[in-house]
Specification:
heterodimer, A: about 270 residues, alpha+beta, Ribosomal Protein L9, domain 1, three-stranded antiparallel β-sheet, 7 helices, B: about 280 residues, 12 helices, about 40% helix, structural constituent of ribosome (chain B)
Chain lengths: ~270, ~280
Amino acid sequence: MWNNSVNLSKNLQYLSSPFLAAYNGFLSQQTRNTFILKRRTPPGLAKKNGPSKVLRGRHFVYELVEDTNVRKKPDLQLILTSYVEGLGNKGDLVTVPRNKGYTKLLLPRLATYATPENIDKTKAAADDQVSRYSSPYVERTINVLSTRTLPVLMSNTNPWVLEKWHIRTWLRRSGFHLQDESITLPDKPISGPNPAMEGKDFYITVTINKKEQVKVRCRLFQIDKKNFTVPEEYYKNTAEPIFPEDKSILDTMPGFYLRESKSSRI
Amino acid sequence: MTTNKLAQGLRMYYLKQPNRFEFGIGTEMPAAYKKFYTEWKYTQPTPVHYIEKEGKYARNEATGEVYPVQNVPLPLKYPKEAHQGLWGGESVIQGFQKRHRLKQKIPHFWVPTLKKSIVYSEVLDKYIRVTLTDRTLDLIHKNYGFDHYLLKTPAYDLKSELALKLKRKILETLADKSLYPDNPAKKDEVYSKYQQYLSAYTKEEIEWYGLNWREACVKMFAIKAAQTVVAPLKHQYRAELIVELQNESEMPAEPEESSISWLSRLNPLSKSTKTS
């Protein structure tokens, strides 16, 4: 242990010195990699058709030429055999990182290698395809939007009627940039300030690519202009609906998934 | 001939080390196993840990002198763990490092990075948890699948006993056509994909493929034991006796002997002309 620390400090000294290239002690500790080696002293030439030279100690002193594990591995070209969320439809040619492609796609048989025969086969089968979604990323967007509780903060002093641009603003503040056309408000108008609606839920409908529809849970807060901040961890609590007839729909929507961190568990 | 007299004398004591197939049970091994074993053990594997110089002759840049290119491979070590995983031709190298010109050379082992992963065999329709290296995965991807990698790669590059055993199993399944017994459509599809590899092997070669020396000996002894039938000697003697008795019964009985009474035979003092 002591020796190691001494070596380390020595190595650090060497690292800080300008003659780093001349000293390779720091990186010459034993690591477990694929090595390409070279003899420092190659054995002499053997006689023609004669026995090979007897190897001496100096012929076993090796130098590292290359460590192939450090080399960047090329991506994998795969053909999907079924629809994969966030990647593509069946028969799509995709390029994915090597390890992800092997563990997430090849082993569960969601994809095959893009061999020339496989490419031809999928080209032939490409015509009769029915895609479930308008884009491979739609399912991901639906998953994110449907589990979200959107805070909608309104004034508690000035009179207001909830409009599309209010929702658009609060979606943007949550990280979703979309246009007014894709937002559908509840049928009944919501207006305030109204203390009876404070901290209660309603839902809006978001249309993705003019095709898929997803309902988003919103929570109404009426807050003073001076203290205009979103309440802390409001999404962990459940709330009553503003319109009692919406209760059945709001109850079926997927809620917040409580992620417990390791530190909070003790 | 060397000019050294001692070397000349020592030469007379030199005896060639006998090959495994030249004595004992080795002489009785079938040609199929001998072929596999020479491919596995006596063939130089493709260089993984060093770069081979190409060409027959090279020129010294400084002097312009032409010299023949002789590649001396690095000695490789295959520990028993290499036979329990798929190292993709990698191995352990024992050697020295010279870390500084004023320091002694230090013994060093270069060991490949091993990781636990899973491979899927399409022919066997099985997921297998194995220890492998990045190079193995590279080769699997390069050959478009684990089965293609095993079937395309010769024994001297697979090296590991596990890989060779899996290869034999795949070859056996293809030869017996026992893959996907419940799904005939899939069976035909997969069989047509891997059928091309079967032409390189006869049935006997598949049977003897991937066996290590010990397993081959056990197999050979079992075959020999089945061939030699050991019958108890009493069966042989009984049969001989029956034949003898049958012969006797066929022979006509001697009438003269029956005339002599049994008492006269017993009497040693009676002087009979017939018994003399």
